[in-house]
Design goal:
With about 400 residues, the chain is of the alpha+beta class. It is about 45% helix and about 15% strand.
Length: about 400
């Protein structure tokens, strides 16, 4: 496409989001898909995603025959950028759009693509993830949730933890153990595109420090799912899970687009610094506050430019995978530190979270608590550092 066509398309998208941004619903909206905990939040966000999809600004680069737009990836990138600029609500089917959908398009059977992809985009079918377990820690290889073949079905027993959107999902990308034999603990794991609405699958919401829900612990008690839910072959689950994680961590492209959270920005914190007081004056007049804000601005801008850098061979030749593999770590840790800094400017008022006197209704405290979820989900920050050290820098495991 020509530069003129891209400019015109950006103007078109910006105008659409400006004209169609939803009004304040009158209730608190979650910051990410990991905080969707009420029916009214869920219905509002699902309707919004459906509207964006029907307008043609979601899944633009996915194949047309499965419900996507079949258009160049650069158009979806522009649409996603304009969504972020417009500060509109996020796409609630994050796991479907960013992890399950790309995986199915890459590795799924033809019937899987026809069955699942369009409903992922339209938000008719919400997806959740069944990887982590209460006793497995950060090592997915320790997964013990069992899937035993019984004729044309698999029988599931065990539990999964941190199942975001578990109470609303129709499908789960599930890693389960089909065998305890083999040379290593990874050999007996298999991967399923599992339905959630079958007897014996029970997602239980977990209340967080903020008082919100969104996470679940999902229990499997002799739950039967069709055998054709198996992706690939038995024992291939570990390799398929690793492909999934490359999508989840942004190391591999192919996602449907759309924003996945209402992210705190440095500009939000700058605006807060203009309003709150330090020593009787606006905090932004304090030299130390200004210094830290400038550092955050530089870091934020650098993170945005890193994506461009990865496309320029001369700037990414030494460590070609470092930029993409470090994206999740850099973004989540910046958001956590930025939220903490915002709280520090509130002084003693930072302790007021649920009272009427809390600054901006407790928005900053809520954001700080919620910021930790992204440093845990998709692999903790500590695990991410290990991965970068070992797979990018070539450092020894010990």
């Amino acid at each position: 496409m020509t530069e003129k066509e891209l400019v015109e398309f950006r103007a078109e998208v910006a105008a659409w989001f400006r004209d169609n941004a939803p009004d304040d619903p009158g209730f608190l909206l979650p910051e990410t898909f990991m905080e969707v905990g009420t029916d009214e939040q869920f219905e509002f966000l699902r309707d919004w995603q459906h509207k964006v999809y029907e307008a043609g600004y979601l899944g633009m680069a996915w194949p047309k025959e499965y419900g996507g737009g079949g258009r160049p990836q650069i158009l979806q990138d522009i649409a996603t950028q304009e969504m972020a600029k417009a500060r509109v609500p996020f796409m609630t089917n994050t796991i479907g759009l960013n992890w399950a959908g790309p995986l199915i398009l890459k590795m799924g059977r033809e019937e899987d693509k026809k069955r699942y992809i369009k409903n992922i985009l339209s938000a008719e079918d919400i997806w959740c993830q069944g990887f982590s377990e209460p006793d497995a820690g950060s090592d997915l290889g320790n997964s013990q949730c069992r899937a035993v073949r019984d004729g044309d079905e698999y029988v599931l027993n065990g539990s999964k933890i941190w199942t975001s959107l578990g109470t609303y999902a129709r499908h789960m990308i599930l890693l389960a153990r089909t065998s305890t034999e083999g040379s290593n603990k990874y050999a007996g794991l298999s991967y399923f595109l599992a339905p959630m609405n079958v007897p014996g699958i029970d997602p239980k919401p977990i209340q967080k420090l903020t008082g919100e829900y969104g996470f679940c612990q999902t229990y499997f008690d002799n739950a039967r799912i069709p055998a054709d839910c198996l992706m690939g072959q038995e024992g291939e689950g570990w390799n398929i899970a690793m492909v999934t994680l490359t999508f989840e961590r942004g190391a591999t492209g192919g996602q449907a687009g759309g924003i996945s959270s209402m992210e705190l920005t440095v500009n939000d914190v700058v605006e807060l610094a203009r309003r709150v007081k330090r020593n009787g004056k606006p905090a932004i007049e304090d030299p130390d506050v200004r210094r830290q804000l400038v550092n955050f601005l530089i870091e934020s801008k650098s993170n945005r430019l890193m994506g461009v850098r990865s496309t320029i061979p001369a700037l990414a030749s030494e460590w070609p995978t470092a930029v993409m593999m470090s994206g999740k770590l850099r973004a989540s840790e910046l958001n956590r530190r930025l939220s903490r800094f915002a709280l520090s400017m509130l002084g003693a008022n930072a302790a007021r979270f649920v009272s009427d006197e809390a600054t901006d209704g407790g928005k900053w405290q809520r954001g700080y608590f919620n910021a930790f979820s992204a440093t845990i989900g998709g692999g903790t920050s500590q695990i991410q550092k290990n991965i970068i050290g070992e797979r990018v820098l070539g450092l020894p495991k010990d």
